[in-house]
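quick one before i forget lol
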Amino acid sequence: DWIQKAGSVEMNCQFQLRLGMWQESMAESGNATHHFLERLGPALLLRHGNQTTTLEPHSIEMMREFDHSIAPIICEHKDRNPFIPSTALSGEESSLILLMVANSVEYLFRFWPFFVHKVLWADSLAFRIAIWIGELPVGIAETFTDECRA
């Protein structure tokens, strides 16, 4: 069983995506409320334990610090996208899970559009979605072909 070969992996983690689009904000000034658009870049928000970490592609030092401070971690995507209708007939979450692997957050941001595409695709099918961040243990890495690791 591959999970027994994983060793110590933190699994108490959830992730959210910020796609990097415009967000409407409000500010109050006196008796008036002003609406304006604010550009937000892409981000990966990780909730693990009692801590929330926001990682962005321009914060390279923070990403590297995060990568070196954790053992491998599996984070599950819990927030379904309400703008994408699920194709699951029952409307319930699938028993299937898409598990993606990235050896570092920096690597993940290099392929950000592809990662977001996979998350949105799996979300549209009501799959559970998880990402393994960190190096694969040798016992697991040896069970996959080079094509699977690409």
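fyi The longest strand covers residues 22-29.
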